Amino acid sequence: MKNLGSFEMPLQYMCHINYAYIANGTMNQNIPDSEIVLRQTIPGHVKPTPKWKAFNEDLLRSKIPIKTLDRLEMYDPEIVFFADRIDKHQKRAYFEIVAPDGKTFFTEFDTTDLKYATRWILYNGDQQVSAFVLPATCRPEGFLAAKKAGTLIMLNPNEEKSFKIKTGKN
Questions:
Q1: Sequence spans of domains, the chain
Q2: Is residue 136 packed enough to be buried (19+ CB in 10 Å), middle (13-18) or exposed (0-12)?
């Protein structure tokens, strides 16, 4: 990304790698499970059901992120987890999802600039997603939230910023 303007520009970046839903897939990463926390706000586009709210309350109480995608009926609306400041655990983050047949899909990235990660799980008639990690410079909650959290990156005029992310199948 390059700031082509003549004024300082804020940068928020998230790499949307939306792998298809893998029934009974198991998610792992090289940061502690305790760092992956359930989103506690409900964005306007999410229309919670009583069953979904109860499921979220169970997840909050357990403080353990979903590891295995074995309850597709519970992922509508979406279930979202955040991992903040993962650079304090690893210089290089590694996330994976392993299918029941052993196929492993992975995403790896440097945490120097991509210090945040989002896990997005959704299963409904239109979308079936197991985004086991979305590397980012901040949480995906918008400009004002990033500004308040101090996670905005500011690019000077003509300044460039790039990120390298490796993803694929083992």
A1: 15-38+46-150
A2: buried
Residue bearing tokens 């997005």 = 120
Q: Is 149 helix (H, G, I), strand (E, B) or coil?
A: helix
CB-based contacts of 93: which residues, under 8 Å, 6+ apart? 29, 30, 31, 86, 108, 109, 110, 111, 114, 117, 133, 135
CA angle 102, 106, 35 (to 5 degrees): 110
Mean pLDDT per 10-residue run, the chain (170 residues)?
96 95 98 96 91 95 95 96 98 98 98 97 96 97 93 96 96
CB 128 within 8 Å of CB 122: yes
The pLDDT of residue 120 is: 97
State the residue for tokens 């229309």: 47
CA distances from 107 to 60, 79, 147 (A): 26, 20, 27
Asked if residue 118 lies in contact with residue 134, where contact means CB atoms within 8 angstroms, the answer is yes
Cα 103 from Cα 106, distance rounded (Å): 10
Structure-token pair, residue 131: 């985004």
* Euclidean distance between CA atoms 37 and 30, whole angstroms: 15
pTM attached to this predicted model: 0.94
